[in-house]
Specification:
Elements: H1 2-9, E1 13-17, E2 21-26, E3 30-36, E4 39-43, E5 49-54, H2 56-59, E6 69-72, E7 75-76, E8 79-80, H3 83-97, E9 107-112, H4 118-130, E10 135-140, H5 141-148, E11 159-164, E12 169-175, E13 178-185, H6 189-204, E14 206-207, H7 210-220, E15 231-238, E16 244-250, H8 251-274, H9 278-287, E17 289-292, H10 301-309, E18 313-315, H11 322-330, H12 334-340
Helix pairs in contact: 3-4, 5-11, 6-7, 6-8, 8-10
């Protein structure tokens, strides 16, 4: 009886469980939560762990914690790296979505990359169930992104989606409510940040942190030169003198720093196009490629893809939320949801 009553009280949720950010869509309310996928964990002397903070509060601690506290990302390259911490993070987001009502057991759709293994799928399902879900559906991110971008995935026509996330870039061709061909590479926003850190270290002998690299990427990062040059002051530790130092970097330098990860993403798009059936390829020439994900917001990235593929590139209206919104739309169409979700 209690389980039945809890089910009645529930608000169905769609969760874009990303490497960098987690977005929660509530049926009937839209996006209700968008926070970094970061958890601050305190390690006790007896080996036990305590969750101190989740999301934005935990991200503020990155690079600033003592030895007993670790700000960690439990999702790595789009999949669970730390089962217990992921469960705690999911429970936090579910309770926050329901104003911390503990009896609620919602139906949940979780978005995962196409490259996920059966072991990783099981880990995601179990984490969500332990965190309080009543039912768990797993949906591939490109499918959710296509729905979020307003594409009709049930038609017998080809739709190509490029989802540039924090940990992975997923490229898929969708037709008749299924993924015809897809490719996934574990390169995304995080690898871009790492490339910036390496570039600044190599060229300027300056060590910067992850958060500084991310701010650089967002503020002056570009995939293609052109237009007005932007500059930004960067602070870090001088690797020669060992003291704090400030330099000024330009958008041209950022383009050079990001050249390798963006080129790899372009290669994956090309590889996917090469394996696309001819009839669907002709649809893509007409309809173009839809670009989604946080990485799609990198300045001139759509232009770079356009120049390299000679195809129309359409950036989704809101690339950052497209996956969560698409999964949320599927909650209103249970028959479609069961058709397009991964088998249990």
């Amino acid at each position: 009886m209690l389980k039945w009553f809890a089910g009645l009280m529930s608000d169905d949720l769609a969760i874009d469980l990303g490497t960098a950010n987690t977005l929660v869509f509530s049926r009937g309310r839209g996006i209700i939560c968008s926070e970094p996928s970061v958890v601050a964990v305190s390690q006790k002397p007896d080996g036990t762990r305590k969750i101190l903070a989740v999301g934005t509060e935990a991200k503020e601690m990155i690079g600033r914690t003592p030895g007993t506290i670790r700000a960690t990302r439990p999702i790595q390259d789009g999949v669970i790296a730390d089962f217990d911490v992921t469960e705690a993070m999911l429970r936090y987001f579910i309770q926050r979505a329901h104003n911390r009502r503990r009896l609620v057991r919602p139906r949940i759709v979780i978005c995962v990359p196409p490259c996920i293994t059966s072991v990783e799928k099981r880990a995601v399902r179990e984490s969500a169930m332990l965190a309080g879900a009543r039912e768990v559906y797993l949906m591939e991110e490109p499918m959710a992104a296509a729905l979020g971008a307003g594409l009709n995935v049930t038609e017998p026509t080809g739709n190509m989606v490029v989802d540039v996330g924090g940990g992975t870039t997923d490229v898929a061709v969708i037709s008749l409510a299924g993924i015809v061909t897809s490719n996934s590479v574990r390169i995304g926003g995080d690898k871009m940040d790492e490339s910036i850190i390496s570039f600044v270290k190599r060229k300027h002998n300056l060590l910067i942190g992850e958060r500084t690299a991310e701010i650089l990427k967002i503020t002056i990062g570009t995939a293609l030169s052109g237009g007005k040059t932007k500059t930004m002051e960067v602070k870090g530790r001088d690797l020669v003198a060992g003291i704090p130092k400030m330099i000024v970097m330009s958008s041209e330098e950022l383009q050079e720093a990001l050249a390798e990860p963006t080129a790899r993403i372009v290669d994956v798009v090309r590889e996917t196009l090469e394996t696309t059936p001819p009839e669907l390829a002709s649809d893509i020439v007409d309809r173009g490629v839809v670009l989604v994900g946080g990485g799609a917001l990198l300045r001139n990235f759509d232009q770079l893809l356009r120049e390299e593929t000679h195809l129309p590139i359409v950036r989704a209206e809101d690339p950052f939320t497209a996956v969560a919104v698409g999964a949320g739309k599927a909650l209103d169409q249970l028959d479609l949801l069961r058709d397009i979700c991964l088998p249990a």
